[in-house]
Design a protein that fits this description.
The complex is a heterodimer of chains A (386) and B (228).
Chain A: H1 3-11, H2 15-43, E1 53-58, E2 66-67, H3 71-75, E3 80-88, E4 91-93, E5 97-98, E6 100-104, H4 106-112, E7 116-117, H5 120-128, E8 132-136, H6 137-143, E9 150-155, E10 166-177, H7 180-183, E11 188-192, H8 193-199, E12 207-208, E13 210-215, H9 221-231, E14 239-243, H10 244-252, H11 258-287, H12 289-298, H13 302-338, H14 349-376, H15 379-383
Parallel strand pairs in A: 6-11, 8-10
Antiparallel strand pairs in A: 1-13, 1-14, 2-12, 3-6, 3-13, 4-5, 4-9, 7-10, 8-11, 9-10
Helix pairs in contact in A: 1-13, 2-11, 2-13, 11-14, 13-14
Chain B: E1 4-17, E2 20-33, E3 37-41, H1 48-55, E4 63-68, E5 71-72, H2 78-88, E6 89-92, H3 104-109, H4 119-133, H5 148-160, E7 166-170, H6 178-195, E8 198-202, H7 206-209, E9 214-219, E10 222-227
Parallel strand pairs in B: 3-8, 3-9, 6-7, 7-8
Antiparallel strand pairs in B: 1-2, 1-4, 4-5, 9-10
Helix pairs in contact in B: 4-5, 5-6
Amino acid sequence: MTRSGFVIANLFRKRVRTILTLLSVIMAFLLFGLLQSVNTVFSSGADFVGATRLFVQARVSFTTPLPVSMVPKLEAIPGVARVAYQQWFGGVWQTNTPLIMFALDPQRYHDVYPEWKMPEAQWQAFEHTRTGLIVGRQLAKQYGWKIGQKIPISSNIWPQKNGSKAWQFDLVGIFDGKDEDWQKRTNLAFIQQDYFDEANQFGIKGRTNFFILKLADGANAEAVSKTVDAMFENSPDETKTQTEKDFNISFVKQIGDIGLIVRWILFAVFFTLLLVVGNTMAQSVRERIPELAVLKTLGFSDGSVLGFVLAEAFALVLAGGLVGLALASLAGAMVEKATGGQFLLKLDVSVWLLGVAAIVLMSLAVGLLPALRARRLRIVDALAGR
Amino acid sequence: MPEPMVQVHEVTKVYERGRQKIEVLHGLTLDIPKGDFVALMGPSGSGKTTLLNLIGGLDQPTSGEIAVGGKRIDQLGSGQLASWRARNVGFVFQFYNLMPVLSAEANIELPLLLTRLSAAERRRNVAVALEVVGLADRAKHKPRELSGGQEQRVAIARALVSDPQLLVCDEPTGDLDRKTADEILGLLQVLNREHGKTIVIVTHDPKAAEFARRTLHLEKGQLLEQAA
């Protein structure tokens, strides 16, 4: 037998209690791992490495539209091969099923996004049908839409000139993704920018939410981004240019301060964990006051007894913490795969280091008070049950 | 004149319970020679266990001197006392006080974790201790799988394993039936006579005291007489 063997044996004296506590630690660190990696994603700086497209939006917010007349200026920037643009439509299917739906220029979009696969005849039909609508394979499958159907879709933002929010479109094409990753994203719908421009009541004609710049081969994404923003600096339409990935992240950030939300959730999780594990440790020490006194009787010092109790707390939190973080890594990899790499929930080194720090702090927080109690025990009082 | 193992000189022990001060031992003086087997008897509250605790280094006197094996233990700090106990005294309790999560052999090995012995040496010493108490075939059993007498034998093996010269036993047969109690006391007698251990036991049982070489009676914190 070794001292560590003794610690482990004590830990499992009440097997069910220890397993339940261990499960709560695992759950807490699973959440910690996932939420911290979400936080890392949302708080990471711009990353232009490997970017082939840039998104240009109004500096204030992408809900502030930019003039389509910026397109020639953008296309003139060295390193920009082609420019497309998209306007959020706020589509609603039937009563309250929101659709991810944009108004755009079909040809430009086709040029910028070769990842979408659709017969050329359908691209042509989309370009030449004013009320044309194309949808992704998943969306068509979900609602049983077929090419040639008239699809009534409301907009929760844009009424038509006649005041009605109900729009009607002709489904002229169904697109798919070039590979598995892109196929997973075929839950989108696109309409013609021209039709939207003419028919919407608010008359935001000639404006769009954001531009997408397709970069020329070998172009320096960061340099292009800086050039774009410098070009429109101090103009009525100042811009913010970022990569596709960062744009997607900033889109989600609209929900609120993700970092703050994550911190509050983690605070609640760890506070609960503190109570659960702290109570387990306190109860475990309370139950074996005479045993701890016997250890001291045999010659174990006060410090050794304190060490035994702290080691139990540490072993419990360490085992649960490492399993939780490992599960979070696994879950993160699964989320990444399921979203086709759009949501990178990787537990990087910083999350693991934070996790280890949390394990140490949590062990001290739950183990220190019971350990100090064990350290302070007077042998004769403890043996006499006082 | 045999060499003294325990020397207690003018020892007083006062406990504070809230605002109340209770003097349990009043200037007690006592010598126990090496190789002796002493039974401490007396009514409840007479100070038997307090005296045993002081001799075993579990507590410190309020005043007076205590030396064991020539070493003044009343002057040691808590850490020094712990390490002194590990090397010099074996303890046996009324309710055995074994670790329920450990097997018999692991319980016996526990004090050896404080030594520099290798795992193999520890295993060897544990096997010898188990042989001495006649429980070699119960090494892997947990305390709950043993009878009261067997548990007390394991406790005695644990007290013996680091080869201390002094064994202090607080009511070692208080929880056992007569037959088992006699077996345990017989074992202590063997340890005293054949292995030369100095043994001090506290007991209420006159029959248990008969196994000792001599009996000391305490009353109201003072030694009354010495009986052969």
